[in-house]
Give the backbone structure.
Amino acid sequence: MSAITENPSDSSDLSLAIRLQDGSVGAWAEFVELYGPLVESWSTRAGLSKAAREDVAQEVFLSVHRAIGKFDSTRENATFRGWLWRIARNAVLQSLHKVGTPGRGGSTAHLQLNTVADPFAESVSEWMSLSESQPPSDAKGMAALMRRAMDQIKSRVDSQTWSAFWQTAVLNQPTRDVAESLGMTPAAVRKAKSRTIQRLRKQLGDCE
């Protein structure tokens, strides 16, 4: 990974992953706000209790803090969400195994337990069948993640640039119509859209 020296005046232009690695002010809070709900949704999908979900979130955030220096967005097909998923998947598996561990008891109790189907064994099997590299497909969760990321960067983007991006990328309006309404050239609208999408990718941690 190429070394980047942070300039306090333009730190918001750096990738979230790099700002986390550099310990930039506010980066950790943005990360938790951005990805916390996603980790929660994965734990919920696994059927974990509220207490277990909180434990998983704590473990995931601790692991991210310890390993963020190892994330390299320049690797082929690397995404911050995919890297986070691998960490969360392992944390959820550990939690499922912990929940499914039988307590101590006499031989009669064990015989009785053996006659009862183990729902946690099914949960572990189902969770292990999920890809280690690709997060579960969840259109609703991805849409929510993108909304949170856009909310975080909106104040850092010029209002006209944001309008050009919003109308073309989100509302899917024709570039020429947007250019006319904003007093811009079509080329300027396309450039504004591209720059904002790039900034959005940086906020998600997916590029430098």
DSSP finds ten helices and no strands in the chain.
